[in-house]
Amino acid sequence: MSKINLTTFKEAIDNILKIRNVRGLLLFTYTPYIGCDKSILLIDEERNIVIDRFIKIKKKYPIKISNTFPGLRALKRNDRKRPIWSSIVINQGKITNCCCREGIYDANTCHYCGCTPAIETYMLEQLKPLAIIDYLKFLLGG
Length: 142
Known about the structure:
mainly alpha, 4% strand, two-stranded antiparallel ribbon
């Protein structure tokens, strides 16, 4: 999610999830990597509103939205540990202890990180019971 689709994303998600072959979606917010367009970045207040909407959408589509409630809450709190061992990236032979590869991130990127795969991995790494249950429901189709 970014400023580009701030007002239309809920309708877009509803339409995407109506497509027969779509099993689920993983929602995330725009991450401002170095050199990317900062004008579409959601400021903290907007980001929190969007994440609250994500939580409502997750309640509406508990199986089809593969984000977990603990993951969405961690995204909103923005207090998760970084970097985490499960987000190590190897890019062109270089190991980076974050899901960002070397040279594309800074403190601002980390603050506004919307990389929900990393957050969800962290929830599983922490053995958050609700996250595990949410993933089992998704994997088993309900």
